[in-house]
Amino acid sequence: MVASIPMAPVRRSDRRPRAPRRAGSRTTLRVPDDLAETVARYAEQHRTSTNDALIRLAYDGARRYEYRQTVEELAAERGAAIERLIGHEPQPGAEMLSGEETERAILGFRLGIYDEETHGA
Amino acid sequence: MVPDAWDTSVLSRTHENGRHASLLATHRRDAIVVPLPAPAVQELVRGLSAPHLPREPALSRLRWFGDLIEDPLAHVIAFGSAAAQLAGWLLAQIPHPPTRNHRRAGTRAQQRAAWALDVQIAACAFAGGYGVLTENVDDFAALRDAIAQVLPDVRPLSVRNARI
Q1: Which chain A residue shows the shortest CA-CA distance from B116?
Q2: CB count, 10 Å around CB of B105?
Q3: Sheet with strand B159-161: strands edge to edge
Q4: Residue closest to A58 by CA, chosen among A37, A39, A30
Q5: What are the φ and ψ backbone dihedral angles of A17, each rounded to 5 degrees?
Q6: Domains in chain A: boundaries
Q7: Does residue B159 contact residue B141 with C-beta atoms inside 8 Å?
Q8: Most distant CA pair in chain B: distance in Å?
Q9: In this complex, do B2 and A70 lie within 8 Å of one another by their Cβ atoms?
Q10: Which residue from B31, B96, B155 is facing A120, i.e. has the nearest CB?
Q11: B154–A85: do the CB atoms touch at under 8 Å?
């Protein structure tokens, strides 16, 4: 049966929409007062329940955490690989470049010693 | 998923009429970090600080980008020790951009300077744990391949085309 207009429940226009149903285990937790204030403000601003606000803020924090983890792990992995590449051990007893050769190698571009077409910038 | 650092070809086009304005808007709307390699920031500031530009409009635009760089969402990826060493190594192995003079504007000296910056940006992104979002896919793909060849055991630099 379809409710006629007079039978339809009266809806308050300022009523917050119901928070979405989520799958997952239920839990009880103590929310610190300062966090609860933020959660309440978020819920008010986004017209949702405080439970939903808490979950959305947690998702936001989790996203940032995952981002940081991904980047930091990869940076550490790549940093170690670069170290191995640059810090390659020379043959035992190998001679070093002389002081003059060293300076020419490093400053060759500034001093115009290197051919630009061969060696680039 | 590995986030992408924005190279200069993307960063410079995030202004209000730019090709990548909507990308920046999306990041702002969804509070997604905007990773900016330090050498791209250097290139941007250098370009907008050039003495030949009309002073006030250039300063205004510089301020606009300054606000973006200082935005809490922006993360400037430092050109640190690992990035600097890798960039030096790459530049020694690939002294010229693979595209050489094709499709590149500017004098040879300018092309070389631009290539050195691309190398720094790639090294910065790689060492920082990022990929690269760029319009300059061919050159960055060459850098990705060069890195992958000598460092085959680590996840390679991802290079994503910003034009798609």
Answers
A1: A121
A2: 8
A3: B4-6, B131-134, B159-161
A4: A39
A5: -65, 150
A6: 30-86
A7: yes
A8: 50
A9: yes
A10: B96
A11: no
Task: Give start and end residues of each alpha helix (H) in B71-107.
Answer: 81-93
A88 touches chain B (CB under 8 A): no
Distance to chain B for A46, nearest Cα, Å: 14
**Is the CB of B96 less than 8 angstroms away from the CB of A75?**
no
ipTM over 0.90 threshold: no
The DSSP letter of residue A79 is H
Q: How far is C-alpha B62 from the geometric centre of its chain's CA atoms? A: 17
Which residue from A minimizes the CA distance to B131? Answer: A71
For residue B36, the surrounding DSSP H or E stretch is strand B34-37
Tens-digit pLDDT profile for residues A13-45: 556 667 778 888 888 999 999 999 999 999 999
Q: What element of type H or E holds B134?
A: strand B131-134
Give the count of Cβ contacts less than 8 A between chain A and B. 67
Structural element, H or E, at residue A65 = helix A50-86
pLDDT per 10-residue tile (average), chain B, 164 residues: 95 94 95 96 94 92 94 96 96 84 69 91 98 95 95 96 92
Please, what are the domains in chain B? 4-161 (3.40.50.1010)
Tell me what pLDDT residue B104 has.
61
- A86 in B contact zone (CB under 8 Å): yes
Query: What residues of chain B lie within 8 A of the CB of A86, using their CB?
Result: 85-86, 89
Contact flag A78-B112 (C-beta cutoff 8 Å)? no
Whole-number CA gyration radius for chain A: 32
A92: closest CA of chain B, how far (Å): 22
Burial B44-68 (b: 16+ CB within 10 A, else e): beeebeeeeeeeeebeeebeebeeb
The pair of structure tokens assigned to B90 is 């790459």
User: How far apart, in whole angstroms, are the C-alpha atoms of residue B36 and residue A12?
Assistant: 47
Residues B118, B64, B2, A80: is their CA dihedral positive or negative? positive
